[in-house]
Every structure is written in structure tokens, then in C-alpha cells.
Amino acid sequence: MVRTTRRNALKLLGVGVAAGALGMPWVRNAQASGPYKIGFLGSLSGPAESLGAPMLEGVKIAVEDINAAGGTNGRQLELVVRDDKAKPDVGTAAARELVGEGCSMLLGVVSSAVALAVSAVLQQEDAVLITCAAHSMRLTKEDFNRNYFRITDNPFMRQRAQAHVMAERFGEVTTWGGLIPDHEYGRSTWECFDNGLKTYYPELAKAEPTISKPVMTTYGGSDYRNFVASAMRDPAVGFFVSAYGGDAITMYQQALPYGFFKKKHPIVDAANEFIVARAMKENFPEMWIGSHWYSGAFTGNPMNDELARKMTERTGIKFLDGFIGEGYSAVRAYAEALKTADSGKTADVIKALEGLTFDSPTGKRTIRAEDHQTIKPVVLYRVRGASNADGIEVVEHRVIDGATVIDPATPGVKLTF
Amino acid sequence: MVGDFLLVGLNGMTWAMAVFLVAAGLTLIFGILHILNFSHGGFVMIGAYLTYTLINQTSGPTGIFVFLAVAVLCAAVVGVLGYVIDRTVFERLKAVDDSYSLIATYAMLILCEGGVKLVWGPDFIALPPPAGLDGALLLGDLFIPSYSLFVILSGIVVFLVLDFWIHRTRSGKVMQSVALDPWMANVLGININAMFTTAVVAGFALAGLAGGLLAPNQSLSPGLGGTYIIQAFGVIIVGGIGNVRGAFIAALVLGMIDAFGTVYVPEYPGIFFYIAVAGILMYRPQGLLSGIR
Amino acid sequence: MSNLLEVRGVNFAYPSLKVLTDINLTIREGESHVIIGPNGAGKTTLFKVLSGEMFAKSGQVFYEGQDVSALDAWQRVHRGIGRTFQMARLFVEQTVLDNVIMALESRERIKKTAHGRWWRLSPTKEIVEEAHLRLAEYGLLKRVDDLAANLSHGDKKRLELLLTLALRPKLIMLDEPTAGMAPEDRRAAIETINRLRQSEGLTLLLTEHDMEVVFGLATRLTVLNHGEIIASGDPEEVRRDPTVRSIYFGKGAAHA
Amino acid sequence: MSRGQNTSSTTSAANAAILAAALVFATLPLWADKGLVFLAGIVMVQIVFAVSFNLMFGLTGLVSFGQAAFFAAGAYTAAWLGRAVPELPFLIFCLAGGLVGALLALLIGVVALRRASGIYFAILTLALGQLVYTLIGKSDALGREDGLVGIKRPVIDLFVGTLDLSIGDRYYYFLLVACGILLGLLWWVWHGQLGRLLAALRQDAERIRFFGVNVRRYREIAFIISGGVTALAGALVAPWSQIITPAIAHWSYSALPILFCLLGGASRFWGPAVGAIVFAGLEYATRTMVGVSELIVGGALLVVVLAMPGGIVGTLSLLARKLTKNGKERLNEQSA
Predict the structure, then answer these.
(1) What does UniProt give as the signal peptide span (chain C) (predicted)?
(2) Which pTM value belongs to this model?
(3) Burial tier of A69 (Cβ tally within 10 Å: 0-12, 13-18, 19+)
(4) Rg from Cα positions in chain B
(5) Going from the N-terminus, what domains does chain D have, and what CATH number goes with each?
(6) What is the CATH number of domain A2-153+302-310+322-375?
(7) Which of A342, B91, B265, D229 is the most core-located residue (most Cβ within 10 A)?
(8) Does the distance separating the beta carbons of A220 and B117 come in below 8 Å?
(9) Which among C77, C82, C93 has the least Cβ separation from residue D203?
């Protein structure tokens, strides 16, 4: 474990130094020939590093694959990497720097705050951004702009798909509560899940759900016991949690002795991929987790299998996080768009991306022309701790067709329920 | 209702003792050297990571005594680190203005983060409580996680030991006199440099111990160093400069205010800690107690 | 001579220590009033209460007939009270000249003249000239550019006196003005202070240990013991006062 | 007259350095890429932030650990007004931001300065600052945790015509001029009678009290000027970064100006500016060194602090003084 991550760090360091050497501040050329330059912008340090680093790996594999196959339009892809430290101001500076170095095609971004900040300056900088994880609904709703694209699902799709599966599988569980971090993303996931419960329980379980007021939690804290206690007092049986990363680990760990996971079932985790499960291993309580991409759900898709094989080879990790698939897909989207927008000019790239259908590890995806939201399958898996070498196992997974749970395209208009 | 009240009180106690464990070493160093050690949280983090690694070396489920032994071992290792830092960094900070030590130790906090990332990687890590502390006691209809009780007990024990040392032993009393008037202590033939080093090593060892004992309390990541530090600052300042008793009382007071505030005014979680710190400092500008005691 | 400062029934105590008990004292305009008493008699505390650094628990302080008991030190300075400290207080990181300029500008700020406007970038020519003049008067001209920290003990005391007088106070309180001075410096200091009193029309209030200085300066003498005034009046009368003698020399000596 | 110990040669060297730095900032858009230009804009604002903070820290001797609250107050006020009443001129937003910062400083200053001093004052301001941080993060009007996004760069009315600052590098130059003016103001305060008075107050509050100075009042004045100018810097940064989040009110943001002041040297007016530039340079140079940037930044910081306890500027001027002194002695020897 320790050894592999250190090797990762060194590998990342290698990329960074190479990127640094390429990225001299006084170079201001936008090449019309030579390789297409793609700028990766993601959290490579700070609290979201463990999300940004795998995303970058996916991006790198895609670039290698495409270049090995002769590139796009006979031109190679060149990757320039910048760290946004999950801070909006650092992200905007890095984005501007990437554009200054001739990378007007940007991708990556973990944090919604960074995505919103960078998205706001895209038009001014004449650049395009495809985000691979940032989930804020505002990006394709009230703060939409034409230079921004999202390659993955959004809370409306993800959380409603989760509610869909719950109504289908746990029709008898009609009381639901939530443990929600008190920020925009947290509230937005809850609103969407709440909407999904109200939509699918009457439809699929023939029952009206009773939904409690969610417990709003802090984030970045070290003590969630009072929130867990509040949730324990709540009569709801099913629980939805959208705490993230380290916060989720802390919360689950402190919830365990209260018998939270014995009393509350099922638990739906909004988006933690395998991050929390890999950390908690045998102690990880069973829950349904939303994911960007799960290789086990798409076996048989050659792109999927190849990506999973290469990633496991490189990192030794068996349960791969969805960020890898999304980084990979974003590069694929650019490569596909460049086939028609061979100039690489921003206006052309935007035009080519709108309505684009392309191959990805989750099968065919289509980018909606109106609000630049991608229609893609939503993935859920049921994970629990296990006494095997990995410490966890995926009991089952579900894939929901994205088109059935997607929001109507209303760019510029705030999402309301 | 009474059960709720007890539960919130217990959670407040757990928080209070966790923060006190971190603050104890901080206030010791602050009291003697007048260095507000920003990197203290970083060394708590190193203690926690070390504990994680050592526990993973042992096979099978970890018992309480193994866990305690590992925590003490980590305290020793971090204490040695403290000795090195005393010689290389703190030694030079004595001559400069107080605020410079703030930036030097801030730089050390950044270094701790970088070091932890290099050794353990950026991914989140979790350490479960040892066997015997992973369950809960049932008191009536009240669930009391045994690990919470363990944290509370650890805090109290550490407090009692420190208090005994400072008030009942010769070396503790010497330490008090050094804190009050190093010049006079020097005149009386006390080797104050040795006392400074002792305080630093003890302070760091306490950081390592806190890290070890609290490793199962929350997730481990390179950002852990900053998690407790502001709370610990609040506690030692409200408690009064270098005052271990004060810090203990302050931790309890602030923990209770924060716990009840969070439960009864859930719209603004976490804000009550700061309101309490500001309020108490306005009422008692020198903290609750003062002088190393 | 009219009364400049009047103290009526002042008491001061720390939580567990009574420091001043029912102090009644009058300082007349133009006199040189010296307060003596053993260490711990409450001289410094009395000074602090009179200057406004600390407030009495009860009793009043009148200055020029007005009750100033509630005024802070800086406000009493505006009324014309100045003081020096046992250990000279200066702006040690600044040059001697800058110290004097700071005092002169403060005086102008109190008088609200154009020289004392806070937005003025550099001191006016008049201020700088006056500073040089005053420094010359005190024999400090050759130290103009030295840091105040680098002055000798005597020079520091002299500079502090200069600074305090630069504010043109009516009453100046000197806390052991000759402490730590060599005998010849002491004599010079007595001369300077007496000259100042006459030339500038100052009223002086001092504490002092050295008897040569006390009788060289005092026109009136007050003896403080255990926070109480045990005698006050003409220096020679006080010298002969039996209570004072009994306290200083023991009971038997009082009748000798 | 001679104030301080700067000999004329070191003064002229310092002036040349300031001029060179100003020139670099002024010509940056002509030769550097956009990312660097953006960073330079942030650094300019941070310089104003740090220098205004140093009015209290270096000059008056008060350590406030809640300075970010004023920065955020200015930024949020200006950005919020820009949304609520977009028809008003931009300069009004800035002034309003500064005013709100000054008022907040008055409020915090009156409370905190009256009660606490030293490290207690630092922690009291930290707690009050965190209070502001939490309240911003919970306020719907201020965008809660996600902040205000898509802040527009303004069009200013110049009487003779309008100037659209959203085009090209115009806002950068506007920022340059605005920061220049603010630094000029601060320079005036620092070196003027008020500044000298505050410096004297730091050295001996008792002595200055017996110069008839209301010490607490002047500390409050320093706090208010400092808070107001910091807020103005915040107001200026909002349209530049085009997004503001509660992070700019967090205690770690309050630590920045302290860092800059100590790194550059708190006893000199330009010290914090040097600190801000050096720190930004360090971060910029390590931005692609993924995985080890913390080690390099932390290590460099530690070395600078341990090797240069007076900060960079303080140490340099000490060095210069020694050199010129040696030079003079040598000259004297030769002439003798």
C-alpha cells in the first residue's frame, strides 16, 4: 500500500517536472500545426488530491492510447498538467496559464467551486472546459455558458437513479432521512434524491414515502457524533448520505458503535466511489454508492476492459474510482470532436462537441447540445467490507439508463422542484 | 429528553478531551518557551500515521493494550523528533520576536504535510478502534460508544498525570519557576536550557500520544494537521497562558457549549465554539486561569 | 499662591493590600513639593493616582479647582500635567531628534495648530528648529542622530526631562529624577531643576531618596509611610517633626 | 533630516528596486502569459492587503489574526452591490466595500482592543474573524459556501466617456493604478506624523500617553485604517478573480499577511510587499512539482525565517549598513 502510493507520487512528480519544463511562462504560442494541446486542470494537492490524481491517470492513458493509434487527424495529443489545489483562485490562474500556453481545450476539475470559477472566465479567455467530476447543477443551469461541458452525470440524474433503485428494491422502506453537508452540493444532492423518492416510490413501490428533514452537518471536522446522534433519533429507516471523502470516513467510523448501520438500512452514499470503502476495509458497512464509472459494470466493452487492465497494472488497485473513467472519456470526447473541428479553434470545438456522440468506457455517450450535459449511464454498486485481500467486495451493481432520469435541458434557468 | 441531554453532554466531553489531548502539549511548550507551535497539529498527525502503520504490522485484531503500547511508542518517536526540532529550530527561535516563531512553526506544519504525503501518500486512511473499544455500552436506552469513553478517560488520565507532575514533583515545580521567571531560575542555578528542552520533548511526546490515541477517532489524511489546531489554540488561550488546568477547564467549557449549540441550533453548526472563545476572552481577557499551573 | 493640585481623601488598595489611606494633599502653584518615605510607602502609587495612570478607589483629585479624578493620564496631560519615570522612558528605536520632534508635535496636536496635523508627512521647519534649539540647551546636540537606546543613563534622564518639558506643563512630576546618578551629576541636576522652576514658572512634585537632593529642591516636604501622610509642610519643620523622627530613628530618638 | 539609519546609498538602491518592481508589474501583460498576469494581479492586491495589515502589525505592534474578515467584507460588499444595484458606478461599490471594512474594524477594534492584548488579542480577533467566515458561509445572499460567481468586470464612467474594463488587460492596469494609489496612501500614513506616532506608541505606550495621546484611540484608528484599506483591496480583487468564496475570510487567509510581513520584514514599509512577491514566486516555481511542493515551500520558508530573523528587507538593510560601515572605515583608514 505504502510502496505503491509512493511510486505514484514519484510518477506524478515526473509528469509535473516534464510539464513544468514545457510550460515556460514566456511562451505564448498557439500552434496551428503540430500536436493538439490539451490542458489538464485538477486537484493534485490539498484535500481533493486523492480524487484528482486518479483522474489524471485516466487522462494520461487516453492520451497514450490515442497517440499510439496515430493520434487525431494524424496529429498527436499533447498533455499539459496544472494543479488547481481545489482553490478557485488557484484554478483560475492555472486555467489562464494553460490558455496562455496554447491549451484552449481544458479538462478535469474535481471541485465544483473551481469549475464555477473557471467556467465564468472561459468566454473571456476563449477556451473550452470539460469537467469530469464537478457536480454542481448550476454549471448547466443558472450559470451555464456555451464554453462549458460536463462529461459525467449530475446530481439530478445520479440521485434520482439512486432513488429509483431504492423504490424498486426496498419498496417496504418508505421512511427516509439524510445526513447532508451544509453546502450547495450537499443540499442539491438531497433535493434531487428527495425528488426521486417522491417520483419513484408511488410509481414503483405503490407507496408514499415519508421524508424527514435531513440532518445538516459541518464539513472538514473531526467530530460527527452529535449529527449521528440526531440521525439515530430520526424515525426514518433508509438514509441518504452525501458527506465526502475524509468526512465520510470520520462520520461512518463514529457512527459504527452507535449501531447506526444496524438500525438504518439501506444506506445510500451519494458519490464516494471506493475511496471510503478502500480506507475502512473490513469495517466498511454495507451501502449503495453512486459512481461515475465502475469497470465491473461494463465488462465486455473493450475500451472499459483495456482501461481497467492498464490502471490496475499501474497502481495495483483492484477497485478503481470512477474519476479514471471520466478523465479518459473527456479526452475521448475532445479527440472525437477534433475530427470535425480539425482547426482546434475554440468556436469549432464547441460546435463539434454539441450533440456529439462518442465511444467511452461506459458505452456510447451523447453530449446534449442545449445545456452541454452528457447523457450517460448512471452507476450504483452495493459494497461492503469483506475478509478478503482487498477488505471489500462489490455485492452487486446497477446501471440505470441516463436518458430515463435526466433533467430537462434548461440552460440559464435555476433547477426547481 | 434526559437521555438526549446526557448523550449530547457525552459527545461534548469526547470532543473536549480529544481537543485537550492535542492542546496539552501545545500549552506546555507555549507556557515555557512562549512559542505558539503551529506545527503541533502536524506532529499529532505524524503520531496518528505512525500508529496506523505499526498497528497494521501486527497480525490479527489489535487489543487495547497493544494499541496503548503503540500509542506510547509513537509518543516516544515524536518526542525524539521534538528533541531534533528543539536543537535545529526552537533553539534559534529563542532570540527572535514571538511572532517569528509563528511563521517558523507554520512552515514546519507545511513540511509535516509534505512529509506525510511523501511517506503515506495522499489517499484517505482509516484505522478502526482496537478490539474491545469498537462497540458501545448500553446504559438504559443510551448508547455510549466505548471508544468515546476511552477518549474521555485518556484525556482525564493525561490531565491528572500532567497536573501531578507540575504540582507535586520537584521537576514540575522547577518547570513552573522557569516559566514564571527564567532569569531568576537561572540565578538559582537551574539549567534552564535543559528545562526548555524537557518541555519541548514532553510537548512533542504529548502530540505523538494524542495522535496515537486519536488515530481511530477520524479519517487520516495529510490535511489532518490543521483539523485540531485552531480548536486547540482556542482552548489554550481561553485556559490562560501555559496553564494545563485552565486548558482542561476551557476544553470542557468550549466542548459543552459547542455540542449543545450544534444540537439545539443546527442551522449554524460549529459557530458556537468561536462565539464562546470571543465571549470568554472579552469577559476574562487573560484567560480563565493564568501562569503555568 | 493658589492651589494647583488638591487631593482629597484618596484611598487605593489592591485586592489584598491597602496601599494608600485617606491621602489629603495640596500642591501650591510654583512650589517644589517633594514626597519622601521608605520603599513601599506608596510614593509611586500616589504618583500614578495623581497622573491618572491608575484611579483611586475613593476620594478626589482636583487640578486648578476642577475634579480630574475620572480623567485618564492623557487627558490630564492636556490640562498641563507632565511626568518622568524612575527608569527613563524613551522611544529607544528612534533617534534623539525624532524623540524631541515627537514631543513637540504632540504639544502642537494638543494645541491643535497646523504643526500637529496627523496627515503632515514631515515635521515643519519650525518644529525641527525648535528641537535643535532645545537639544542645544540640554547639551545633547552632538547626539541628535544617535538612537535613544544608545544614550548614557544620565543623558537618557536629561532627554526625558526635555521631552516632558517640551509639552510645556504647569505641573511636572518627577519620579526619582536623580536615581542612579553620580554625585556631581546630582548637583548639576538640582541646579537645572531649580533653574527650570524659576525660569518657566513650573510647579514641581517629586519623589526622591537622596537627602541632598531633597533639601536642595524642596520648598515643601511630605512624608509618606505605610500609605499614610504622617507629616507635611516646610522642610525644616518636617525635619524636626517628632512623628517623623520616631518613625525614622525609633521611639527613643524622637525626644532626643 | 535624518530619520532611521538608511544611508543615502542604500536608500537609492531600495528606490531603484521599488522602481524596477513597479516596472515589471506595469509591463507584465506585454511579455508574460495570462496565467502569470492573473497571478500578478492577485499579488498586487495581496501587497496592499499585507502592507495595510502591517500598519497595525509592524507599526503599531498589534497582531490581529482576523484580518481576512475585512478583506472578505470589502470583496463581498462590492460584489453583492454589483448584483443588487448594477446601475451604480463601480467606484461606489469599492468605496462602500472599504467603508464596510472600516466599520467592521471599528466594531471589532472597539471590542477587542478594549479587552485584550498580545496573544489574547490575536486569538480574540481570530475567533471574531471565524465568526464572520461562518456567517458568510451561511448567508444565502452571499452565495453560502460556494460564494459569488461570475462577477463582472466593470465599465467605469470617466465623464469624458466610458471605459470598459472587461476588455483585454484593462482591468489589470486599473488594478495597477488603484493598488498604486492605495500604497501611496499607506506610504503617506506610515511615514507621516500619524505613522511616526503609531511607531512611537509601539515602542513605549506609557511615554506617548504622557505626550497627551489617547493610546487606545490611536490603536483603534490604526485598526480602522488598516481594516478599511484591506477591505478596499478586497473590493478590487472581486472583479479580477471574478469569483469570491468564503475561503477569503478563513483564518488561513488571515495568516497570509502575517506570513508576508515576517518573510519580508515587518519593520519596513516595503517589507510585506517583498514577502508577498517572494512567496508568490515560491508557489509559482513549485506549482508543477506535484507531491513535493509542500516540502519545498515549507523548507524554504523555514530557512528564510531561521537565517533572516529580520525578514528579507530587514536583513538586507542590516547587511548594507554593515557593508557601507566597513567601506567607510576602510576609506577612513586610507585617508589616514
Answers:
(1) none
(2) 0.87
(3) exposed
(4) 19
(5) 8-335 (1.10.3470)
(6) 3.40.50.2300
(7) D229
(8) no
(9) C93
